[in-house]
Structures are given as C-alpha cells and as structure tokens.
Structure prediction request, 124 residues.
Amino acid sequence: QMQLVESGGGLVQAGGSLRLSCAASGRSFRLNAMGWFRQAPGKEREFVARITWSPGGTWYADSVKGRFTISRDNAKNTVYLQMNSLKPEDTAVYYCAAGRTGYGGRLATEYDYWGQGTQVTVSS
Prediction:
C-alpha cells in the first residue's frame, strides 16, 4: 500500500505561482509513474501532468504546457508540481497519483493510489 499526501495549495492572484508537493509513504514509489490531476467544481477530473519512473520523462496537458513543471525526488519519495503564470481557470482541487507501472499515461484508470487533494484557487 502507498499513501500520498499533497500540500502547497492555496489562494493566489492570476499570474502568480505555487508549488505543490506530494509525499509518498508506505513503500518506495521510485518504480511508479507519478501524475497530477485536477477537478474543478462541476467538472470531471482531468489529467495535468505525468512523470515516468526514470529517467523522468514528462507529459503535460495542453492547457498547462509551458506553465507547469512536474518533477520528482525519489530519495525523498516526493513529487512536485511547479505552477507558474496561474490563471483563474486553473482553480481546482489538485490530486497526485501513483501509476500502476513506471510509464503511466493520462487516464485516471492507469493510477492505483491517490492523495486526498489540495485546493488551488486563482483569483482574477
């Protein structure tokens, strides 16, 4: 079993930045792809970014490409999401997830473990 805990969410003005962290416990996640998803009120959960287990290949949703950066520190069992140039439409609860394999994709069904989520609110 793996437990994931997100942190770093909050309220920020448009154009600002936040860095989300996701700490894994229970077992090492170094062999798992890690992903970030988000869910806005009244909308379905959507893929944001993914990083493979090694050497850390990344993949981003078009809506965040060039603004968000996903990274991981396997020694700390932590994955990060650096979010720059935030927009009001980025407002959502952000979830991290551990993939079933080392090369997870953009589908939520490819991820077995989920955190409880952290709220990100971007004001205009």
